[in-house]
């Protein structure tokens, strides 16, 4: 599963057992639970328990994060579509996610998220890709080449605005160490950012190339932590605590399922815009909004990075069509798209391995879905984007950062009360 490396000033050295299994330390779960999903014994639940036996329903990956934070479905917030086993971008086979979270003193609230489209071992194999900018007050490197070629090679890193250059250099360093054959030609990495300067000392040199390398090395498949982790550590969404969120959908085609996964770094929206389960909640949740007095930028300013992954075979311009649908998913949560927001979306397909890289001078063939079959995939992107944003909000706690700036978490109990009163909970 994805490993979150958290750096805190108060951290004590791990004991030997923890050092042997860092993921269990990061998430507070037993090492026995870290077996790959394919090796876990299957369990069937009978229609009714035997006499004298009471079944206790345990939280699933759909209901809570690996660290035990609630997810949106854990609050019974309803969503359309059929999620994958992890309800995460890692439901797309091969995709891996890793974090480094930096929480130090009272000023450092930042980090790095690393995403490998084909896993760490497959980083040298390009993927088909498409890019869409809803609003351009942000940065995602490598998109000129994606627009030109319809592909990119290597991992993705997401961090804060002033560390995007460091993230770019860190990807190159990681690639040279693990896939030097790629570095011998040229690299145009994908590094993206959102602004965390309300809570974080964004001008400090806290994110370094080793930080980026550690996040990329930490990437794993399996359930993904959400909320104030990785690049999302210092981010705010609808003037509540935001950050990292993910969700997935399974879509059938020709007697098999393909996965569509979305990962967001959510740092956008004004409080009055917020919509959950189709119910406008901004007015009911207007209290306790310290960011309303922060005049650096207008309410709603911020950014969102979205990464859409699928194993469905797609052409690059079909990937771009998926990326455009992120906008509709954000709109379901209330976003209208601020002029001061950097809303940048990348979609890629892990199908057609070895089809886009260098090779002998010969014709190649691609598998692809016909355009008339893509509507369910567009819907999957919309559904998973909405849920990923809500997961980023729900899986969070209050945070205080630089200069005493504080961001409250989404008040889960009050949200549940309001949605219950409106008859919106599942």
Could you please describe the fold and organization of this structure?
This protein is of the alpha+beta class. It is built from ten helices and 17 strands. A six-stranded mixed beta sheet has the order 5-4-15-14-11-10. The protein has a five-stranded mixed beta sheet with strand order 1-2-3-6-7. Helix 4 crosses helix 6. It is globular and about 65 Å long.
List the helices and strands and how they pair.
Layout: E1 4-8, H1 16-20, H2 22-27, E2 96-104, E3 108-116, E4 127-136, H3 143-149, E5 151-152, E6 156-160, H4 164-178, H5 180-183, E7 190-194, H6 209-217, E8 236-237, E9 240-241, E10 243-253, E11 256-269, E12 275-276, E13 279-280, E14 300-310, H7 316-324, H8 326-332, E15 341-349, H9 375-394, E16 399-400, E17 406-407, H10 412-421
Parallel strand pairs: 1-2, 6-7, 14-15
Antiparallel strand pairs: 2-3, 3-6, 4-5, 4-15, 8-9, 10-11, 11-14, 12-13, 16-17
